[in-house]
Amino acid sequence: MRKADLFQAISEKTGIPKVDVLVTMEAFFKEVKDTLKSGENIYVRGFGSFILKKRAAKVGRNIKKNTTVNIPEHHIPSFKPGKEFMQEVKKIKFAPGKIKKEIED
Q1: Pick from 13, 36, 63, 74: most CB atoms within 10 A?
Q2: Is the pLDDT assigned to residue 13 strictly greater than 70?
């Protein structure tokens, strides 16, 4: 699913105009980026957490020039799914080429 497909699906399910969904979602994405840039994590109960992970400094290699490169300590964004979210995903059965949700009795 692409971003445009996501906006369309939300618009159809909620009855909110697609333009309003687009503006809201873009504001959400921007807020997540800005909050993580400021060094703060975001916790959404029942869904998951947007967190920063620390990567230690290390020595890498530039293969083309055959030289070592010092890579400084840095942080990367990460998503950690919540417990309820993980339980929903675990209910999905994967078949070759298709994803089928298991029907509960």
Answers
A1: 36
A2: yes
